[in-house]
Amino acid sequence: MSPMTLVREHTTQYLPHDQLFKELIHTFFEEFLEVFFPDVHHHIDFTSSNPLPDEMFTDLLKGKSRKADIVIETKLKETDTLLIIHVEPQSYGQTNFHERMYEYFSLLYNKYRKPILPIAVFSYDEKH
């Protein structure tokens, strides 16, 4: 009879794909815009960037809410114009994604009453 070996592994807690992108974009927000949206980056004053709460209520009486992934208030360079940048990273295809972005756009505008710049980031293989 051979001796039995017991191997006990601790499972690693991996961040969900969208959460990882969210953290990376928050951490490297200026660099993200510089690489992927250079025309936007050129006009942003990053010294005034401020993350905002991501929860928006769609129905106050029923308590329904939505959470946007990244919502940042910032200024345009050399102006006092404030705007909201909303970034929505997504790792899967969704046929009504444009409707969801419009809903976020509307909710953010109603909440903050400032210009909204929506940015969708797709990180999935469109063949699947």
Any idea what the shape is? globular
Averaged pLDDT, please? Answer: 79
Describe the biggest sheet? 4 strands, mixed
Residue stretches low in confidence (pLDDT < 50, at least 5 long) are none
What is the tally of beta strands? 6
Class computed from helices, strands and strand pairing:
alpha+beta
Strand order of the largest sheet: 1-4-5-6
Distance between the termini: 49 Å
Radius of gyration: 20 Å
Which band does the percent of strand residues land in? 25-35%
Please write the string of helix (H) and strand (E) elements: HHHEEEEEHE
What is the helix tally?
4
The amount of helix comes to 25-40%
Task: Report on the architecture of this protein.
30% of the residues lie in helices and 31% in strands. The chain is built from four helices and six strands. It has a four-stranded mixed β-sheet with strand order 1-4-5-6. It has a two-stranded antiparallel ribbon with strand order 2-3. The model has no long low-confidence stretch (mean pLDDT 79).
